[in-house]
Amino acid sequence: MIEEVKLQEKVAELLDIFFSKRKESLQNLKLIQTLSRKNPYLYRASGVADASEIVEEILRAHVSSSDETLFGNVFFEPLAEWSAKHANPDATVMTSDGEGVDVTMQIPGEGVVRPIAVKSGVNVFNAASKKKQGENFASLNKRLSKLALRFDPVVGYCYGRKKQTERSKATFREVAGQEFWAMLTGDNQYYIKIATCMLDTPVDRRPEFQQAFDEAKNRFVLEFLKEFSNDNGSINWDKLIAFNSAAEKPKLTSVAKKKAVPTLR
């Protein structure tokens, strides 16, 4: 059983990394690149007339899509490996070098090697990616066959519920939410403890992130108005749509012109 104080320390460490990466993601986001992937017709059809409304939608969509991936990479995955190691001190738990596999466990006495692909939620697979995951496990099984251990590949979902596919129809087990964390740690309440051990860290770090969000919004609004507004302050839809969809992209004033290098006489 993992001591709660140790889990608190690890959760705080990973949350610090998560918030730092969130802030960095906003600071590195470029309006022009993001606008090129958006649907300007939808903004026009929605009756949007405020540049800040477009900018805020862009930023919130970015945060929503990037947070899920970011949280999985810098919080869930390292926490799963750390939890498996600390809950099973006699086991061999390591970061896997197999493609599509995050953690490999080998527990003495079980005669089993258990490669685990850690996923955030249960809706990550389509038919093609699920087939690819099975192929990744099969490739690792081939490499580990010399160990003469039973191969028990698992896709572990850090939240949600997943009905186990019949083994005859699947090449790996799928375990989600409470069952996944219990499999790693032997603690049936571990999935609850993860959130409890966050304590006040999310609340304490939120103002810092909000400041970064507001700064990005202000920066984007200024740039948007500079590039895509008329003299009276209205949105220049012709230019915005041309920038997004014209065969030849119009030049923007925010793109720095290369300075001519003076020749020496």
From TrEMBL:
Any Pfam family hit: RE_EcoO109I
InterPro entries: RE_EcoO109IR, Restrct_endonuc-II-like
CDD domains for the chain: PDDEXK_nuclease
Coiled coil (UniProt feature): none
Domain Type II restriction endonuclease EcoO109IR: 7-198
Name of the protein described by the UniProt record: Cytoplasmic protein
Annotated source species: Comamonas avium
